Amino acid sequence: MTLHEPTIFVLLLLGYAMLGLQLATIGRGLAGGESLRRWGWGNSLMLAGYLFLLADVAAPWAGWVVASNGLIVLGEFVFVAALQRFIDQRRPPRLLRIGGVASALSMAPLMLLPTPTRMPIQSLIAALPLLWAGWLVWRSRGRAERSLRPVGLMLVLVAVALLIRCGHALLQPQAYVDLSQPNPAQILLEITAFTALAGSGFGFVLACAERATSLLERQASRDHLTGALNRMAGGPLLERTLQRARRERRSVAYLLLDLDRFKQVNDEHGHVFGDEVLRRFVQAVHARLRASDLFVRLGGEEFALVLPDSDAAGALAVLEDLRQDCRALGLRTEAGRACPLSFSAGIALSPQGSVDADALYRAADAALYRAKRAGRDQAALAGADETIPR
């Protein structure tokens, strides 16, 4: 099998140029903008590196080889930095930056070695950042975007091709005396580099697009202040919960919670402190939720809590735990004044999902106002004449 190297290098240049154009066009509109910019820098370094390789094919000179190898390795480290930034949402470690610069600079003294000796060392150096990238994607597989997995896989494929060339150069050094002669390891590496390195870039753009979509969905379904579900998202989820309760013949408890005298908190301490109270309250509730529970901010200081497979006793137990959690918050104003937090609650039940969402809300709302009229900081059960004191 023969390979026309100038053709491969031209294809690589076109691939990186197309990716660079895509990054420049859509990078600003996607989530992970800083990570995309870093990937764009890596893409530019790769583009320049393969341009120097093409120059070496046209007019052989050791300087072209040093520049191309250095830029390609540096580009790989920049790709890793972009992945680390995207996955961990923090600045890449200093070791990564130092390693990238040192690896790129090492290409110059390596040119003093004979090609059969130099080739396995260069291959190993170039493989290490790509293996690092694969490890980053692997360790984040449970929380990162699914479209990031092919990115890690393609980068690891290039690393494997480099390691194969490293082993081939160690076992058959005579194959690297004249690089103009056909070499199966070289062919494998160049084909893999063409398909995988450029493809991983497009995959990274897809991962950023996936994150942007997830953020938009979250913004559409979550209250921007507290992170609780908003009313628009909560309605369909409640309907789905009731449908499942009907199928499985289980009860659903629907609770309306209203923070006591919250208007007074805003009036006396300001809306900034009031917002912090809401956030802390929601955090306390979220810490108690099961995966199947729903917590919705209906508006202002009113919230709905949906407890699948729960009866009145279970709902009351949850409310008591929440009361203890609210007392333990230890809220204080900027002036150091204690601000105890309490809430009133109305409870309505849907046995086997037989009570629909509108009826649940009306029943829980009536019970909530009965609890508030009885003195607040307590709960009332719909259909019962008495409130349940704290």
From TrEMBL:
| Domain GGDEF positions | 250-384
Q: Does the record carry Transmembrane as a key word? A: yes
TM ranges are 6-27, 61-83, 95-113, 119-138, 150-171, 191-209
Gene3D superfamilies cross-referenced by the UniProt entry:
3.30.70.270
**Which EC class heads this enzyme's classification?**
transferase
The catalysed reaction is: 2 GTP = 3',3'-c-di-GMP + 2 diphosphate
Q: What is its EC number?
A: 2.7.7.65
Q: What Pfam families does UniProt report for this protein, alphabetically?
A: GGDEF (PF00990)
Q: Which UniProt keywords apply?
A: Membrane, Transmembrane, Transmembrane helix
Quote the NCBIfam families the UniProt record gives.
Answer: GGDEF (TIGR00254)
Q: What is this protein called?
A: diguanylate cyclase
Instruction: Give the organism, scientific name.
Output: Rubrivivax gelatinosus
The organism's lineage? Bacteria, Pseudomonadati, Pseudomonadota, Betaproteobacteria, Burkholderiales
